[in-house]
Design brief:
Length: 290
Protein backbone atom coordinates (compact mmCIF):
# COMPACT_ATOMS: atom_id res chain seq x y z
CA UNK A 1 0.00 0.00 0.00
CA UNK A 2 1.38 3.46 -0.86
CA UNK A 3 2.79 5.27 2.17
CA UNK A 4 3.43 8.98 2.72
CA UNK A 5 6.25 9.46 0.17
CA UNK A 6 4.35 7.70 -2.62
CA UNK A 7 1.15 9.63 -1.90
CA UNK A 8 3.05 12.92 -1.70
CA UNK A 9 4.62 12.26 -5.11
CA UNK A 10 1.12 11.78 -6.54
CA UNK A 11 -0.16 14.90 -4.75
CA UNK A 12 2.62 17.00 -6.29
CA UNK A 13 1.73 15.66 -9.71
CA UNK A 14 -1.92 16.60 -9.19
CA UNK A 15 -0.86 20.08 -8.05
CA UNK A 16 1.06 20.51 -11.32
CA UNK A 17 -1.53 19.08 -13.71
CA UNK A 18 -5.00 19.42 -12.17
CA UNK A 19 -5.20 22.30 -9.67
CA UNK A 20 -6.94 25.38 -11.07
CA UNK A 21 -8.89 23.44 -13.68
CA UNK A 22 -12.68 23.05 -13.86
CA UNK A 23 -14.01 19.49 -13.97
CA UNK A 24 -16.45 19.12 -16.86
CA UNK A 25 -17.50 15.57 -16.03
CA UNK A 26 -16.56 12.51 -13.99
CA UNK A 27 -17.20 9.17 -15.63
CA UNK A 28 -17.38 6.28 -13.17
CA UNK A 29 -17.32 2.68 -14.33
CA UNK A 30 -19.14 0.32 -12.02
CA UNK A 31 -20.30 0.62 -8.42
CA UNK A 32 -17.13 -0.42 -6.64
CA UNK A 33 -15.08 2.69 -7.37
CA UNK A 34 -17.66 4.81 -5.48
CA UNK A 35 -18.58 2.33 -2.75
CA UNK A 36 -17.29 4.69 -0.03
CA UNK A 37 -19.60 7.42 -1.35
CA UNK A 38 -22.85 6.11 0.10
CA UNK A 39 -25.27 7.94 -2.25
CA UNK A 40 -23.63 6.09 -5.15
CA UNK A 41 -21.68 6.83 -8.34
CA UNK A 42 -24.39 8.88 -10.07
CA UNK A 43 -24.55 11.29 -7.13
CA UNK A 44 -20.76 11.50 -6.95
CA UNK A 45 -20.44 12.32 -10.64
CA UNK A 46 -23.17 14.98 -10.46
CA UNK A 47 -21.67 16.68 -7.39
CA UNK A 48 -18.15 16.81 -8.82
CA UNK A 49 -19.11 18.12 -12.27
CA UNK A 50 -18.55 21.84 -12.89
CA UNK A 51 -16.39 22.23 -9.75
CA UNK A 52 -12.90 23.76 -9.76
CA UNK A 53 -9.97 21.91 -8.20
CA UNK A 54 -8.59 24.50 -5.77
CA UNK A 55 -5.90 22.39 -4.07
CA UNK A 56 -4.42 18.91 -3.94
CA UNK A 57 -3.98 18.09 -0.24
CA UNK A 58 -2.66 15.23 1.86
CA UNK A 59 -2.45 14.09 5.46
CA UNK A 60 -0.37 10.98 6.01
CA UNK A 61 -1.43 8.46 3.38
CA UNK A 62 -4.74 10.24 2.71
CA UNK A 63 -5.12 12.31 -0.46
CA UNK A 64 -7.92 14.62 -1.59
CA UNK A 65 -8.81 17.29 -4.11
CA UNK A 66 -10.34 20.41 -2.53
CA UNK A 67 -13.28 21.51 -4.69
CA UNK A 68 -15.08 24.85 -4.90
CA UNK A 69 -15.10 28.09 -6.89
CA UNK A 70 -12.03 30.28 -7.52
CA UNK A 71 -13.33 33.26 -5.54
CA UNK A 72 -14.68 31.23 -2.62
CA UNK A 73 -13.48 28.73 -0.03
CA UNK A 74 -13.08 25.05 -0.76
CA UNK A 75 -16.26 23.28 0.26
CA UNK A 76 -15.74 19.58 -0.36
CA UNK A 77 -12.86 17.16 -0.51
CA UNK A 78 -12.81 14.43 -3.12
CA UNK A 79 -10.92 11.77 -1.17
CA UNK A 80 -8.91 9.38 -3.31
CA UNK A 81 -8.26 5.99 -1.70
CA UNK A 82 -5.38 4.42 -3.60
CA UNK A 83 -5.73 1.06 -1.82
CA UNK A 84 -3.13 -1.51 -2.84
CA UNK A 85 -2.83 -0.64 -6.51
CA UNK A 86 -4.70 2.58 -7.29
CA UNK A 87 -3.09 4.97 -9.76
CA UNK A 88 -3.94 8.51 -10.82
CA UNK A 89 -2.68 9.08 -14.35
CA UNK A 90 -2.64 12.22 -16.48
CA UNK A 91 -3.40 11.19 -20.07
CA UNK A 92 -4.35 12.90 -23.32
CA UNK A 93 -8.03 12.47 -24.24
CA UNK A 94 -7.08 10.37 -27.26
CA UNK A 95 -4.90 7.92 -25.27
CA UNK A 96 -6.31 4.36 -25.21
CA UNK A 97 -8.21 3.38 -22.10
CA UNK A 98 -6.22 1.44 -19.53
CA UNK A 99 -7.36 -2.10 -18.86
CA UNK A 100 -8.38 -1.37 -15.27
CA UNK A 101 -9.78 2.14 -15.80
CA UNK A 102 -12.49 2.93 -13.22
CA UNK A 103 -12.88 6.73 -13.37
CA UNK A 104 -12.18 9.48 -15.89
CA UNK A 105 -12.09 13.21 -15.12
CA UNK A 106 -12.61 15.42 -18.17
CA UNK A 107 -11.89 19.13 -17.87
CA UNK A 108 -13.53 22.18 -19.40
CA UNK A 109 -10.26 23.29 -21.02
CA UNK A 110 -10.13 20.11 -23.16
CA UNK A 111 -6.65 19.45 -21.82
CA UNK A 112 -5.28 16.18 -20.43
CA UNK A 113 -7.67 13.91 -18.53
CA UNK A 114 -7.14 12.52 -15.07
CA UNK A 115 -7.76 8.79 -14.84
CA UNK A 116 -8.15 6.50 -11.85
CA UNK A 117 -6.81 3.02 -12.61
CA UNK A 118 -6.92 0.19 -10.08
CA UNK A 119 -5.98 -3.39 -10.86
CA UNK A 120 -7.07 -4.86 -7.51
CA UNK A 121 -10.09 -2.54 -7.03
CA UNK A 122 -9.40 -1.90 -3.34
CA UNK A 123 -9.26 1.86 -3.95
CA UNK A 124 -11.96 4.34 -4.80
CA UNK A 125 -13.36 7.88 -4.64
CA UNK A 126 -15.64 9.56 -2.10
CA UNK A 127 -16.81 13.13 -1.50
CA UNK A 128 -16.64 14.53 2.03
CA UNK A 129 -17.39 18.03 3.39
CA UNK A 130 -14.34 19.97 4.51
CA UNK A 131 -13.98 21.08 8.12
CA UNK A 132 -12.79 24.53 9.18
CA UNK A 133 -9.29 23.05 9.34
CA UNK A 134 -9.54 22.10 5.66
CA UNK A 135 -9.74 18.36 6.32
CA UNK A 136 -12.43 16.10 4.86
CA UNK A 137 -14.71 14.97 7.69
CA UNK A 138 -13.85 11.36 6.84
CA UNK A 139 -10.15 12.07 7.47
CA UNK A 140 -10.61 14.03 10.70
CA UNK A 141 -9.48 11.14 12.93
CA UNK A 142 -6.10 10.84 11.21
CA UNK A 143 -3.13 12.22 13.18
CA UNK A 144 -0.64 14.71 11.79
CA UNK A 145 2.34 13.28 9.94
CA UNK A 146 6.03 14.16 10.52
CA UNK A 147 5.99 16.58 7.55
CA UNK A 148 3.08 18.61 8.93
CA UNK A 149 4.30 22.08 10.06
CA UNK A 150 2.29 21.64 13.28
CA UNK A 151 3.62 18.15 14.05
CA UNK A 152 4.75 18.14 17.69
CA UNK A 153 7.34 15.37 18.06
CA UNK A 154 7.63 15.84 21.83
CA UNK A 155 3.85 15.52 22.32
CA UNK A 156 3.70 12.46 20.07
CA UNK A 157 6.62 10.91 21.95
CA UNK A 158 4.75 11.37 25.23
CA UNK A 159 1.70 9.68 23.73
CA UNK A 160 3.77 6.77 22.41
CA UNK A 161 5.56 6.42 25.75
CA UNK A 162 2.19 5.73 27.34
CA UNK A 163 1.48 2.74 25.08
CA UNK A 164 2.32 -0.82 26.13
CA UNK A 165 1.97 -2.20 22.59
CA UNK A 166 4.94 -3.09 20.41
CA UNK A 167 6.59 0.03 19.07
CA UNK A 168 6.05 -1.02 15.45
CA UNK A 169 2.33 -1.48 16.09
CA UNK A 170 2.21 2.06 17.49
CA UNK A 171 4.09 3.50 14.50
CA UNK A 172 1.52 1.91 12.19
CA UNK A 173 -1.41 3.40 14.12
CA UNK A 174 -2.52 6.32 11.94
CA UNK A 175 -4.33 7.87 14.92
CA UNK A 176 -0.97 8.36 16.68
CA UNK A 177 1.26 9.43 13.79
CA UNK A 178 0.19 9.17 10.16
CA UNK A 179 1.97 8.33 6.94
CA UNK A 180 4.19 5.51 8.23
CA UNK A 181 3.45 2.07 6.83
CA UNK A 182 5.24 -1.25 6.92
CA UNK A 183 8.18 -0.27 4.72
CA UNK A 184 9.15 2.94 6.46
CA UNK A 185 8.44 1.56 9.93
CA UNK A 186 11.03 -1.17 9.34
CA UNK A 187 13.52 1.30 7.88
CA UNK A 188 13.06 3.75 10.76
CA UNK A 189 13.42 1.04 13.39
CA UNK A 190 16.58 -0.24 11.69
CA UNK A 191 18.08 3.26 11.66
CA UNK A 192 17.22 3.64 15.35
CA UNK A 193 18.52 0.17 16.29
CA UNK A 194 15.18 -0.79 17.87
CA UNK A 195 13.34 -4.09 17.42
CA UNK A 196 9.73 -3.64 16.34
CA UNK A 197 8.45 -5.96 19.08
CA UNK A 198 9.87 -3.83 21.87
CA UNK A 199 7.08 -2.36 24.04
CA UNK A 200 6.74 1.36 23.39
CA UNK A 201 6.58 2.10 27.12
CA UNK A 202 10.11 0.72 27.65
CA UNK A 203 11.64 3.37 25.36
CA UNK A 204 12.71 6.75 26.69
CA UNK A 205 11.02 9.85 25.30
CA UNK A 206 14.30 11.07 23.73
CA UNK A 207 14.67 7.67 22.03
CA UNK A 208 11.13 7.91 20.67
CA UNK A 209 11.79 11.43 19.38
CA UNK A 210 14.93 10.16 17.64
CA UNK A 211 12.87 7.35 16.11
CA UNK A 212 10.32 9.86 14.81
CA UNK A 213 13.20 11.87 13.39
CA UNK A 214 14.46 8.77 11.58
CA UNK A 215 10.96 8.20 10.22
CA UNK A 216 10.89 11.67 8.72
CA UNK A 217 14.43 11.36 7.38
CA UNK A 218 13.86 8.02 5.68
CA UNK A 219 10.59 9.20 4.12
CA UNK A 220 12.29 12.40 2.98
CA UNK A 221 14.97 10.31 1.25
CA UNK A 222 12.28 8.16 -0.37
CA UNK A 223 10.46 11.26 -1.55
CA UNK A 224 13.63 12.50 -3.24
CA UNK A 225 13.70 9.25 -5.22
CA UNK A 226 10.04 9.21 -6.18
CA UNK A 227 8.96 6.73 -3.52
CA UNK A 228 9.32 2.96 -3.34
CA UNK A 229 8.14 0.76 -6.21
CA UNK A 230 8.42 -3.01 -6.08
CA UNK A 231 6.27 -3.54 -9.18
CA UNK A 232 4.36 -1.53 -11.78
CA UNK A 233 1.39 -0.92 -9.47
CA UNK A 234 2.79 2.23 -7.85
CA UNK A 235 3.59 5.04 -10.29
CA UNK A 236 3.32 8.82 -10.31
CA UNK A 237 0.81 10.72 -12.47
CA UNK A 238 3.14 10.43 -15.48
CA UNK A 239 3.42 6.65 -15.08
CA UNK A 240 7.00 6.67 -13.72
CA UNK A 241 8.08 4.38 -10.86
CA UNK A 242 10.04 5.44 -7.80
CA UNK A 243 13.40 3.82 -7.08
CA UNK A 244 13.93 4.08 -3.32
CA UNK A 245 13.73 0.27 -3.15
CA UNK A 246 17.41 0.31 -4.21
CA UNK A 247 18.27 2.16 -0.99
CA UNK A 248 16.37 0.00 1.51
CA UNK A 249 18.54 -1.27 4.36
CA UNK A 250 16.09 -3.66 6.07
CA UNK A 251 12.71 -4.00 4.39
CA UNK A 252 12.70 -6.85 1.88
CA UNK A 253 16.40 -7.54 2.44
CA UNK A 254 16.20 -10.92 4.19
CA UNK A 255 19.35 -12.98 3.72
CA UNK A 256 21.43 -9.92 2.77
CA UNK A 257 24.09 -8.36 5.02
CA UNK A 258 23.06 -5.55 7.31
CA UNK A 259 24.70 -2.39 5.90
CA UNK A 260 25.81 -1.47 9.42
CA UNK A 261 27.24 -4.69 10.91
CA UNK A 262 27.15 -7.35 8.18
CA UNK A 263 24.76 -9.72 10.01
CA UNK A 264 22.14 -11.22 7.71
CA UNK A 265 18.77 -9.45 7.77
CA UNK A 266 15.92 -11.69 8.96
CA UNK A 267 12.21 -11.76 8.14
CA UNK A 268 9.57 -12.33 10.81
CA UNK A 269 5.78 -12.30 10.94
CA UNK A 270 4.16 -9.27 12.55
CA UNK A 271 0.44 -8.35 12.52
CA UNK A 272 -0.21 -10.43 9.37
CA UNK A 273 2.69 -8.62 7.72
CA UNK A 274 6.38 -9.26 7.28
CA UNK A 275 8.94 -7.45 9.42
CA UNK A 276 12.60 -7.16 8.48
CA UNK A 277 15.38 -6.42 10.97
CA UNK A 278 18.99 -7.04 11.89
CA UNK A 279 19.22 -9.57 14.77
CA UNK A 280 22.43 -7.94 15.99
CA UNK A 281 21.66 -4.22 15.65
CA UNK A 282 18.04 -4.68 16.72
CA UNK A 283 18.07 -7.26 19.46
CA UNK A 284 14.72 -8.85 20.21
CA UNK A 285 13.31 -7.87 23.63
CA UNK A 286 13.44 -10.56 26.30
CA UNK A 287 10.10 -12.05 27.35
CA UNK A 288 8.77 -10.33 30.45
CA UNK A 289 8.64 -12.39 33.65
CA UNK A 290 5.42 -12.74 35.58
Amino acid sequence: MPELPEVEVVRRGLADHVVGRRIESLELRGQRVARRHLPGPADLGARVADRVVLRADRRGKYLWLALGEPEGPAEDGLVVHLGMSGQLLVEGPSAPDERHLHARFSFADDGPELRFVDQRTFGGLALSPLTEAGLPESVGHIARDPFDPDFDAAAVARMIKGRTSAIKRVLLDQRVVSGIGNIYADESLWRAGIHGERPASTLTKPAIERLLGHARAVMDSALDQGGTSFDALYVNVNGASGYFDRSLAAYGQQGRPCPRCGTLIVREQFMNRSSFSCPRCQSRPRPSRA
